[in-house]
Amino acid sequence: LANRLTSLKDLPAETTDGIQVQLLGNIEFPSEAQQCLDRGVNGIGLYRTEFLYLANKGEPTEEEHYQAYRDVAEAMAGFPVVMRTLDLGADKLPALPDPEDERNPFLGLRSIRLALKHVDMFRTQLRAILRASVTKNIRIMFPLISTLIELRRAKMVLADAMEDLEEEGVPFDRDIKVGMMVEVPSAVMMMDHFCDEVDFFSIGTNDLVQYTLAVDRSNKDVASLYTSADPAVIKLIKMSIDSADAHGKPISMCGQMSGNPLYTMLLLGLGLRSLSTTPAAAPELKRLCRSVSIPECEAVAQRVLEMESSRDVKALLREELLKRL
Ligand code: PEP
Ligand code: MG
């Protein structure tokens, strides 16, 4: 099987009826860019930039950010690199600038909220991303957006950083694409409005599941409730894809769900054409994409959308997957 998967490296992730699926990689460390290329992945769909904070003692300098981002952008020349801005707090606890005792860290000052509170820190990162963007393949993505105001504030900090660089005569990609993660149910409900404000979306199921079902993603005691196969989660995913499609905005998925072959047919059937996963998962996803047709996937999605429990959903998806192993 390993050999069969390796031989797929240079083949497209194309369904039997000729529909192209974009396979992207999720990475945390610049060194992982090479792993993506080795597995025939067409770009980075999620670069988790927190590692600089988690590895460093204290705050990284603009130069440290810049070096890391430039390394990835250059390694991936010709392929898109979606750089997600700081997603610190809750499950990604670094040396926070001012760690506060929070009773509900996942509902607290994390991710974009923390970045907007510490604007200097945020601006430093944005400057570094912009400076690295001269390679023209970088895209910026804001995490955990829950309201339009929040998105607009993030975009304003970005516009400020651009203006500063311009005044300083520092080059950057003026047409850089700006997107957001869809990982809070409120963002799904407001998709039509967000479509007017961003260039692309990526669904983050790890958080979307947690916020939809009110289940802490890191709490073992409630782990049985935590599943991407929940019908409510699947409905929210469908709504997100339908809205983005209606507005002609690209949408991808970068949570764990997108890398699990169990869900591939469902996601294609719901209309998703781009999946971002750990590089290791990509060859198997590609094999699967190449063994199914879109009408088959749509039929599966249709049946799933009528189901009432994650147990039924998983049973059906397992049965369909087994037929294609
Ligand atoms: C997600 O929430 O699905 C996601 C991809 O982001 P993270 O796992 O880094 O929170
Ligand atoms: Mg997330």
Automatic annotation (TrEMBL):
Active site feature: 254 (proton donor)
Ranges for domain PEP-utilising enzyme C-terminal: 5-292
Sites where the protein binds Mg(2+): 183, 207
Gene Ontology biological-process entries: phosphoenolpyruvate-dependent sugar phosphotransferase system
Catalysis performed (reactions): L-histidyl-[protein] + phosphoenolpyruvate = N(pros)-phospho-L-histidyl-[protein] + pyruvate
GO cellular component: cytoplasm
Catalytic activity, EC: 2.7.3.9
Positions bound to phosphoenolpyruvate: 48, 84, 206-207, 217
Cofactor(s) of this protein: Mg(2+)
Residue ranges the record marks as coiled coil: none
GO molecular function: kinase activity; metal ion binding; phosphoenolpyruvate-protein phosphotransferase activity
Protein name, entry field: Phosphoenolpyruvate-protein phosphotransferase
Entry annotated with the keyword Metal-binding: yes
Subcellular location: Cytoplasm
Enzyme class: transferase
UniProtKB keywords: Cytoplasm, Kinase, Magnesium, Metal-binding, Phosphotransferase system, Pyruvate, Sugar transport, Transferase, Transport
Function: General (non sugar-specific) component of the phosphoenolpyruvate-dependent sugar phosphotransferase system (sugar PTS). This major carbohydrate active-transport system catalyzes the phosphorylation of incoming sugar substrates concomitantly with their translocation across the cell membrane. Enzyme I transfers the phosphoryl group from phosphoenolpyruvate (PEP) to the phosphoryl carrier protein (HPr).
Similarity annotation: Belongs to the PEP-utilizing enzyme family.
